[in-house]
């Protein structure tokens, strides 16, 4: 149902989902991290200091797209393996499908990781007009090959794109973002789901960002990770320039979040304990902010509870629609909190319920500053 009041056009909505970004691995929290574009948006927007996701990739992405807790939908057991005949349940309506009914053009660039075992599971069958990127959990940034069994994984819509081989994911994604904006009819609203690999392993940062982190000060694993974080920031900056160049900024919401905490081997999630794969807050309390000239209150930190499931009904509400109560989602519409700084409507939250899987992950290796 369309409920957008008093406007000729619904707003554009951009959701940026970083991959394994540490809570303390952004410049606005840690001055050693070079992320000027992310910092600018966060400081001019609203930083959600009590925002939670789930502990790993697939459950978080499923929660975002469906507005449902993974444990209720059979998606709580870690991640979908690359060769598994599984995908996020086809009975669940995805966020872009709701937005399509409100007249949105919908595009996905980056990582999917919600299953690809049959055509019906693919992004272009689940509400996206276009998709460009990787379907599995994470491959090489240059060769786009899934590490566990050597499968090449880079797609343009449903088609394997072998021409991407040898070009870094950062450059490929920025080029695709440019193409999306070039072909967009600005008389129609856009929903862009940008889910880059950065800074997920493997550690393959580009030299232009590694120079920010000298080897005399950082271990190599930490240095590579931070190079990917700064690469992520560069992509965010390029995306912002596209929004501005296309005269869309005044009517656009930009939401930034990590899918989970950073891997404790390479990231800093302090002051919280643990990291990716754990149910400690270091694994589930994430970087999250929203920026837009449409916000009524900006330049502050909001301490209210926000869960990743909340973004689905909140985004639909910002777009002028609503999720029917009969659909039984777990997400809560937090538009008043996001838009005006009102108190959070959330009073409880489930981390996970999984009686069949032991999520204890051994942590080895050395991180941080020498």
Automatic annotation (TrEMBL):
**Which superkingdom, per the lineage?**
Eukaryota
Q: Which InterPro entries did the record assign?
A: Alkaline_phosphatase_core_sf, ARSB, Sulfatase_CS, Sulfatase_N
Q: What is the lineage of its organism?
A: Eukaryota, Metazoa, Spiralia, Lophotrochozoa, Annelida
Q: Which Pfam families match?
A: Sulfatase
Q: Which family does it belong to?
A: Belongs to the sulfatase family.
What are the recorded GO MF terms, alphabetically?
A: metal ion binding; sulfuric ester hydrolase activity
Which keywords does this chain's UniProt record carry? Calcium, Glycoprotein, Hydrolase, Metal-binding
Protein name, per record? Sulfatase N-terminal domain-containing protein
Q: Where is the Sulfatase N-terminal domain?
A: 11-320
Task: Extract the coiled-coil ranges from the record.
Answer: none
The cofactors required by this protein are: Ca(2+)
Organism, as annotated: Capitella teleta (Polychaete worm)
């Amino acid at each position: 149902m369309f409920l957008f009041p008093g406007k000729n056009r619904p707003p554009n909505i951009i959701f940026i989902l970083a991959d394994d970004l540490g809570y303390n691995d952004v410049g606005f929290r840690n001055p050693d991290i070079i992320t000027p574009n992310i910092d600018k948006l966060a400081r001019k927007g609203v930083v959600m200091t009590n925002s939670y996701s789930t502990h790993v990739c697939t459950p978080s992405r499923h929660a975002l797209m469906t507005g449902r807790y993974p444990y209720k939908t059979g998606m709580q057991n870690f991640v979908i393996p690359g060769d598994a005949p599984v995908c996020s349940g086809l009975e669940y309506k995805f966020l872009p499908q709701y937005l399509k009914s409100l007249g949105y053009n919908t595009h996905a660039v980056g990582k999917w990781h919600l299953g690809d075992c049959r055509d019906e599971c693919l992004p272009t069958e689940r509400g996206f007009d276009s998709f460009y990127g990787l379907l599995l959990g994470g491959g090489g940034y240059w060769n786009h090959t899934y590490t566990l069994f050597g499968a090449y994984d880079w797609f343009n819509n449903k088609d394997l794109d072998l021409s991407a081989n040898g070009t870094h994911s950062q450059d490929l994604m920025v080029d695709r973002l440019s193409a999306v904006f070039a072909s967009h009819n600005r008389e129609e609203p856009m929903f862009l789901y940008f889910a880059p690999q950065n800074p997920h392993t493997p550690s393959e940062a580009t030299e232009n960002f590694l120079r920010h982190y000298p080897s005399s000060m950082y271990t190599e694993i930490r240095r590579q990770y931070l190079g990917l974080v700064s690469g992520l920031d560069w992509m965010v900056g390029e995306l912002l320039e596209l929004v501005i160049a296309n005269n869309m900024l005044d009517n656009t919401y930009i939401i930034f979040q990590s899918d989970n905490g950073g891997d404790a081997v390479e990231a800093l999630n302090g002051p919280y304990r643990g990291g990716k794969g754990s149910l400690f807050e270091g694994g589930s309390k994430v970087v999250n902010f929203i920026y837009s000239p449409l916000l009524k209150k900006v330049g502050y930190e909001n301490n209210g509870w926000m869960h990743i499931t909340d973004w689905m009904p909140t985004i639909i509400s910002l777009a002028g629609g609503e999720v029917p109560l009969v659909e039984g989602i777990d997400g809560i519409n937090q538009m008043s909190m996001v838009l005006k700084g009102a108190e959070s409507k959330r009073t409880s939250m489930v981390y996970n319920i999984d009686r069949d899987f032991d999520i204890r992950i051994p942590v080895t290796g050395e991180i941080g500053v020498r």
